[in-house]
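Lab notebook, bench 4. We co-purified these components, and the gel suggests they stay together. Before we commit to crystallization screens, I want a quick structural picture of the whole thing.
Request: model the full complex, all chains together.
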Amino acid sequence: MKSYPTSCIAIAALLTSQVFAQTKAKAQNVPEIAYDSVPNFLKLPPNLYLGESMGVATNSKGHIFVFTRSANTRLFEFDQNGTYVREIGEGSYGFEFAHSVRVDPEDNIWAVDEGTNMVIKFNPAGRVVMVLGHRPEAVAGVVAQSPPPGAAAEKYILGRPTDVAWDPQGNIFVSDGYINHRVVKYDKNGRFLKQVGSEKTGSEPSQFNTPHGIAVDAQGNVYVSDRANHRMQVFDNNLALKSIYDNIGDSWTVCISPGPHQYLFTSNSNPNGNAPGSWDITGEIYKMELNGTILGRFGHASKEFGGFQVVHMMDCRNPNTIIVAEIESWRVQKLLLKPQAPAKTAGGK
Amino acid sequence: MRTSLQIMLSAAILAAVPADAQSPVPQIAFDSVADPLKFPDNIHLGEAAGVATNSKGDIFVYTRTGHPTISLGTARPFAHGGSRLFQFDKTGKFVREIGKDSYGFEVAQQVRIDPRDNIWIVDQMSSMVIKFDPNGQIQLLLGRKAESERLPAGPAAGRGGAAPGAPEGPPSAGRGGRGGGLPGAGSQSDLFQRPTDVAWDAAGNIYVADGFGNSRVAKFDKSGKFIKSWGSTGTANGQFRTVHGIAIDAQGNVYVADTGNRRIQVFDSEGTFKTQISDIGAPAAICISGGAHPYLYSSNSNPPEDIDVAGEIYKLELDGKIVGRFGKAGKLPKEFGTVNSIDCRSENDLYVGELGNWRVQKLTLHSK
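Here is the predicted assembly.
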């Protein structure tokens, strides 16, 4: 009885955040891209299970890395056929609550953990070679949130970081995150260079409300999923704002394909909670030109195979083969996009 | 306003960082092997809090790793896990794990090897000092882990130390002895509050740096019987602000890293103040080398939230004269990320354990 009001408040808060997070994209008449999902793609050994699939990435050989919230957060490697290869970073001090994994051009594997506030760089052999951020000391006991909300953002302390990317020079960009609301640029040796955003949320240009994903194109421009502001912000290499794409719903995660013609992918993932009607207006992924022109969309919210249940991350090393990690279906799907019919009019900006 | 305050604060911090403004300190050239330890695939270092070698050159690392955990659904919240102790041979090959799943392994702080190759660890969270014999069997325990955690957490300095079942005192760093001692003086017993380091004199007496919570040095005989402690929180001679490290020379003088007061205090074996060594930044890890001419090493470690300040290590004569300095804060080899431990069994071959970079570096100092 005593706890009743607390539960009410908690439920109200959840409902509020669901409604808030549920955004229909403004873009209209976007061509549908047909696709197939490869059945039984990842083959896990007996007694090994994925939990929430938070991060997925491939390396240059096509090996697939999955960062998952299991009983403990764990990082698994599979080969290009989906056969299990190994676990990386078993028992790592940096693994408590998976958020993202990315593979850099040298095939180093970078894990972003929003529980320990750390970004961990593993070399291709699976050994730690650099860490960014600092795990709060356990000796502080149980704390509500660390760093405390509103505390001035430190150069080298992250607050529930979400994602990592690199420019062609190897500079490191971290989206940070749920407590801070900024993007930090470090040099390749981990030295702080600058940031955009701050410890505060904001909806003005160059401010963020949950920067949730990040990618960098071949020119060094930085694309940031500004999730709770229902937009993507694009910055130049010095973090000066270039443009804002606000017709794609809530940008949960962003991916840029390599190669001479780069494509931009963003997911308007259906929100946690599945409120009535939410599946009708969210869940799709957009394929775009870097300049924001929408080329097409694919996928829809669903718990069934082939549909998406809160896409949290995408790999787009091959722009026609998208690998998606889903939070609420505890799975990874490999999607084979079918060629689009010759475009009449793309879906406008 | 806030910005200008920040700038002023930054300027003050920057101004405070150069440890010696008077005369330039010679730079000591050195090389580093940044990955001297070879691990099995499923073992990783976290924060390398402690590193030490034994007489055979075996290397011991006490590291914060894995998953520090608090249990749910219990009468009280119980904390466990979070640190491991590994042994490597002198080539860096992994030998074994010691004390796996120990009740006392929570937040690794230090490991030291005594002259008989016993392995001593200091745990900052369980507030225990644990002595393992060379085979890895527990021989002696000092302190006692707090039975459970308080929710919500009080200030970290206030945890531990209290006798189980005793009413909790006001959660302040100055809780001191329940016998009404000075703030930081601790209880006159072997109950520690976030201890940091351990050392021995030639007779085998044990000295514990205690620590973050208390501000004292506790002395025990070799059987672990409490003899005395000295110190309290403050800035006077014989007072401390964070006792972060301890080392003892062949004459039995006790060198105490008094980090918050930016000095090393030197005492005789009874705790009588003799002198202090300053102009070396904020000493966080200290070590006295072996051999006919021992040297004192002291690290002015950078804070975890900033790698653009401090980080250098000093080499000193035991009388405090600075021989030289080397290194700076950073993430590359030959840079340091919050050094918490120095092993200097050999004068010019050092191992340093870093909290910030999750690694142990093997350093070779060039002699002139």
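Chain B touches chain A through 46 residues (CB under 8 Å). Worth comparing against the SEC data before the next meeting. Confidence is low (pLDDT under 50) at residues 1-18, 156-179 of chain B.
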